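Worked example 3 (structure in, sequence out).
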């Protein structure tokens, strides 16, 4: 019996290794992009995790959690996750919905009778969908909070007496304070403290490295957090008490914990199908306009035209991305211990995740593809529509086509690392790190290329409205 079990275990491990090995090219490309971006923007530490199906394909840590002590980031280093906290809170909301403990369309004052009456009725659904009219941060709010709140109800004082910005469901207006009010509503609906609600969810999901960002408690394996500094490049971020914003931006977690949560939602092992679909479905305003925001999740479209649900978080002290591709059953998480001037936005995170989708394209075989290899003289125009010349140098290293692209930016000649990510016949997709990712879509005919380049912000599947960010033509000849 023992021999059979050992054989079965060996076969299982070999299968797991083979599955992960299939994505080694995507992992190497992702490492190239993340490391070059990290170097250009002086991000002290990064943590990533990617799951396909229920298999952990990639988990890696880059840089330091403590610059002064040169303490490396590990997979158990805890990061602030900023507004990704909303998606985490939505899972607890979904559980209350599954258990019929909360009515999303009920007046919140039936749960919170002491909350000041407004001109219009506000429901939990309005709060979760960011259509309530509750305000977000303003310039009058301090950039870093120093006031401590012992419970979520006391933190309502920051906004509870403010007027609504509009009639609920008539506009979409992203509001972190709306999630604070929702957490107080959840607490009353469940009949237990919000802290206990969340901790029970994390325990049940096996998220052992996820917690509240308690300002007055010691947290094991907690990263230091950094902001930009002209002289030192990075310095320790000012003190920030997150007790006023737990549900909307006050949790600590790891990339692996969040990826596991996303995988559980994709595989429908934690919430019912109907509730998961409700969280992931774009809300509509009273006039039928799509908001591209569900209940704690943004909705959009990948480059291959399939659905994506995601959330990002941005604070001066952190940057976070949680991406879910439901049809491909892929979850990707990116966490950094600074968010100040790092230019790593939703599309950058999606570029990384979609490398693993492109890996399935059998036509990509960079080692044998020599058409692009060499030096190309380029002609294009800048974002300000000024004519510009440049150079593209590409070589093959470990089966991956990469190199550098050189062009003028702000009257200075700049060189940026570039990588071939995908190929379909004679059509190529390259990404340059500048430090925002720059997408190049080119077609090669003999020794000439033509196509376009852009900083792609199109995460909703909608046409770009701003002419400044629209694609620019690029042509070139091989030397």
């Amino acid at each position: 019996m023992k021999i059979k079990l050992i054989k079965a275990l060996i076969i299982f491990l070999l299968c797991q290794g083979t599955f992960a090995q299939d994505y080694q090219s995507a992992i190497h490309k992702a490492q190239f992009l993340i490391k070059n971006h990290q170097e250009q923007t002086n991000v002290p530490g990064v943590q990533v995790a990617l799951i396909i199906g229920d298999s952990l394909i990639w988990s890696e840590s880059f840089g330091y959690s403590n610059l002064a002590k040169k303490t490396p980031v590990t997979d158990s280093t805890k990061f602030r996750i900023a507004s990704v906290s909303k998606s985490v809170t939505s899972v607890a909301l979904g559980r209350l919905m599954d258990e019929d403990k909360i009515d999303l369309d009920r007046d919140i004052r039936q749960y919170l009778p002491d909350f000041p009456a407004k001109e219009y009725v506000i429901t939990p659904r309005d709060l979760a969908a960011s259509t309530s009219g509750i305000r977000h941060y303003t310039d009058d709010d301090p950039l870093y909070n120093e006031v401590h709140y012992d419970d979520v109800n006391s933190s309502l004082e920051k906004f509870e007496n403010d007027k609504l910005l509009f009639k609920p469901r008539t506009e979409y207006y992203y509001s972190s304070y709306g999630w604070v009010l929702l957490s107080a509503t959840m607490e009353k609906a469940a009949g237990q403290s919000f802290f206990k609600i969340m901790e029970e969810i994390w325990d049940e999901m096996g998220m052992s490295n996820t917690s509240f960002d308690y300002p007055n408690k010691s947290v094991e394996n907690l990263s230091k957090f950094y902001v930009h500094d002209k002289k030192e490049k990075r310095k320790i971020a000012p003190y920030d008490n997150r007790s006023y914003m737990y549900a909307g931006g006050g949790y600590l977690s790891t990339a692996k914990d969040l990826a596991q949560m996303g995988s559980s939602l994709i595989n429908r092992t934690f919430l019912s199908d109907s509730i998961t679909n409700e969280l992931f479905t774009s809300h509509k305003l009273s006039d039928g306009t799509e908001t591209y925001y569900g209940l704690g999740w943004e909705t959009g479209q990948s480059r291959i035209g399939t659905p994506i649900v995601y959330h990002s978080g941005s604070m001066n002290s952190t940057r976070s991305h949680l991406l879910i591709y439901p049809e491909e059953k892929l979850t990707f998480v990116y966490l950094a211990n600074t968010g100040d001037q790092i230019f790593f936005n939703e599309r950058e995170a999606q570029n990384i995740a979609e490398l693993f989708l492109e890996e399935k394209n059998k036509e990509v075989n960079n080692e044998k593809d020599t058409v692009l290899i060499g030096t190309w003289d380029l002609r294009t125009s800048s974002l300000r529509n000024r004519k510009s010349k440049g150079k593209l140098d590409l070589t093959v290293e470990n089966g991956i086509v990469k190199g550098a692209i050189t062009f003028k930016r702000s009257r200075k000649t700049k060189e940026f690392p570039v990588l071939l990510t995908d190929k379909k016949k004679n059509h190529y997709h390259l990404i340059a790190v500048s430090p925002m990712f720059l997408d190049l879509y080119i077609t090669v005919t003999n020794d000439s290329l033509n196509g376009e380049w852009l900083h792609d912000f199109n995460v909703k599947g909608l046409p770009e409205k701003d002419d400044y960010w629209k694609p620019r033509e690029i042509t070139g000849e091989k030397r």
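Notes: Confidence is low (pLDDT under 50) at residues 1-21. The chain has two domains: 80-341, 374-478.
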